[in-house]
Amino acid sequence: MEALYIEDNLIEQRLMTLYMGDLGIKLHIAGTGSEGWTMAHKVFPSFIMMDMGMPDMDGETLLKLLKADHRLRHIPLIVITANLLIDRKLNIWDMGVVGCVIKPVSKSRLADLLKQLFP
């Protein structure tokens, strides 16, 4: 299984790399929304995890792009965010998001979510 993580914070990238490695998932990392968009088209991952606050493209725009693309719309999206109210500010569930994990990310919570998505 392969995943794409779109996150501009290097510490968060390293942490997720460790978590995914422990779960046996190959992780591809993009540091910006634009890089994530491009990489999604190259990798076609099993799922995409993404931060909502990126320097070049906001998460809402990227979510809409991913779900509008017929080649990518089937890929499950997981939002990883520090914003406790993100699901109330934006209706992320209507944008195709299947899970939301609040930072700091708990490895066990993330593993539980992935078990639900990929039994």
Automatic annotation (TrEMBL):
Transmembrane segments: none
UniProt-listed InterPro entries: Bact_response_regulator, CheY-like_superfamily, Sig_transdc_resp-reg_receiver
Domain of life: Bacteria
Organism: Chitinophaga oryzae
Protein name: Response regulator
SMART domains xrefs: REC
A Pfam family that the UniProt record links to this protein: Response_reg
Organism placement in taxonomy: Bacteria, Pseudomonadati, Bacteroidota, Chitinophagia, Chitinophagales
Domain Response regulatory, residue spans: 2-118
Keyword Kinase carried by entry: no
Family annotation (PROSITE patterns): RESPONSE_REGULATORY
Keywords from the UniProt entry: Phosphoprotein
Signal peptide: none
